[in-house]
Amino acid sequence: MSAATAVDVGLDPATQPSGGRELRVVVVNGSPSVQSKTVGLVDVVLDTLRTMLPIEVSRIDVYRLGPGFTQATEREEATPDVEATIRRAEGADLLVAAAPVFRGSYPGMFKHFFDLVDQYALANKPVLLAATGGTDRHALVLEHALRPLFAFFQALTVPVAFYASAGDFDGTTLLNPRVYGRIEVGLTDVVDLLRARATGAQEP
């Protein structure tokens, strides 16, 4: 797999509602590992969302993008494959921004990805926030670090956001039923917004 290759997950066409189209979801994973608690949380979020509306998912693992990403201080310096990856995030119907908490905030590599995103590319775009940390005390990263980041982009950061602490997992598998419940209730509250996004972007 190349550094900028997506992890793609789709729906069986037989399960899709007639007349609709898949919501293009792009996950920006800020974890250094592709098998992590952060990815485990996002997988539960996407599995739950998949029961509510048809989605097409790709994931960007920022720590796997390579020197063409890490050595770029400006968008123009990014290699073509990294440029294509950034454009994929900018073109999503729904962006899922997911990161572990390091020293009270998101990782620098995660921030570097969004340093290369066009300032206006995410305007009015739905963004769903997810984070993991060692304890529940880190949950405020959602409101005090991640939400302000996307406010800069004038993104439509959805009201619900999801956090899970280390004690909610067995390894990288989310086990806490209360977190599952929060995810289901939270997505139910915003699914109409996301469904409208897919309908509004549908080809004529």
Automatic annotation (TrEMBL):
Keywords: Flavoprotein, FMN, Oxidoreductase. Pfam families: FMN_red. Residues 24-165 form the NADPH-dependent FMN reductase-like domain. This is NAD(P)H-dependent oxidoreductase.
